[in-house]
Amino acid sequence: MTDRPAQxxxxxxxARYDQIAAEGGGATYAAYAGPLRRHExxxxxxxxxLLYDNSPAALRLWNFLLTEEERLRRAAAEGKxxxxxxxxxxxxxxxxxxxxxxxxxxxxxxxxxxxxxxxxTIDLRIADQLGIDESFCPVRAMLGAFxxxxxxxxxxxxxxxxxxxxxxxxxxxxxxxxxxxxxxxxEVPHRRRPDGYASCGTAAPGGVFAEAAxxxxxxxxxxxxxxxxxxxxxxxxxxxxxxxxMESLAGRPLDxxxxxxxxxxxxxxxxLLDELRVLAYTAxxxxxxxxxxxxxxxxAIHFCSDRGEAIAVAQDLLAExxxxxxxxxxxxxxxxxxxxxxxxxxxxxxxxxxxxCGGRLCGTEFLFCHALDEIPEDLxxxxxxxxxxxxxxxxxxxxxxxxxxxxxxxxxxxxxxVISRIPGASHCAGESTAIARAVRSAGLPVVEIEVPPICDxxxxxxxxxxxxxxxxxxx
Length: 475
Description:
Layout: E1 7-8, H1 10-22, H2 37-41, E2 52-53, H3 56-66, H4 68-77, E3 81-86, H5 92-96, E4 102-105, H6 113-116, H7 123-129, H8 141-148, E5 157-163, H9 167-178, E6 184-188, E7 218-220, E8 226-228, H10 229-250, H11 256-282, H12 290-302, H13 307-326, E9 337-342, H14 349-356, E10 359-365, H15 381-390, H16 398-412, E11 416-421, H17 428-441, E12 446-450, H18 459-474
Parallel strand pairs: 3-4, 3-5, 5-6, 9-10, 9-11, 11-12
Antiparallel strand pairs: 1-2, 7-8
Helix pairs in contact: 3-12, 3-13, 7-8, 10-15, 11-12, 11-13, 16-17
């Protein structure tokens, strides 16, 4: 076993771990360090069927991801306050981690547990019994997790955004409230273009608007979307309610200086991630696989319950990728076709499958691109957070989201696009069509697929469609 970049199986990781430990690898020193095998033995059976990057940095990433429950329960035992940020992808956690005795996590993340445990968990069965069946988004697993107190401790505060959100999630979270889990609701309006502006929803470079006319005051949001100033004020007022609730929970004020430092730390992670994405998606040969990139991007939502360690994990991974790019080393064939992937998939194996078909991940839009964008540091903190929240791609028109996807495809040099429809998710029905139309107009081949929580039974069909897309891109 050498240190040359490669993708290896779980069985191969057993020997690789021994090698890293014998060499004094830093990934074996963290409090959560250990061989990957222990997670599979603990019930994460899907790990047996994946291919992993062989670097110590990747090992640290996987161990960090798979020990989140342990961190949350330890934080609760130490007397820290636990905030569950539901249907919030990257805003409320920034506020929570600005307080020294508060930890935030993402209960919705339970949607991937049935996959990682290969359906051995009963969370979905409980959701069925509670009237939330498979016609709903897989996030319904969260209902079963709350009902039986599994996968995370009971939060001291549950915060959930409402209004312009997924209908499925709204129904599931309301059922959760009816079960006796109090929720602080805060509303996000449907983002729209300011009256009097004929531009297509995003600002031109430098924030200049096309065809401006007298009307509402426009505000440029992180990522380039545009909204009326009145909507930003509305979201800011709603987030002020969340701020007061956190102050009450923590027993201390959450002042602007603390929030500003929280924003700076969040941006520190986001800058690391942005450089990592550019290198991973544009360098040839591909320096790191799709699976690890999917996971490190997910850390942006809530830092996997430990902001400082999330930054350290990202630094390690970026250092490894920089080294590989400088040495022109990679894990895939240099001729692999760059594929931009829209929407997350519960079954992580789909990322390996893409690469086995001759593709490489070349950009993503996993419904939380606003958690990847830097939060403005030259504004009052609550104003900056309100703008970040309103930049959520799910709260605006599908045309806005499609335009950003096309823009990011160009940024990363994507040659094809995969749009995965999330089973049961009400927001996928119209959006995927609008996105596919925009992508085709940009001259890129696109395929729409549906990936179930466990894709084994449909793997031949998914493989065929991915191979066809790759061949179309080559032609």
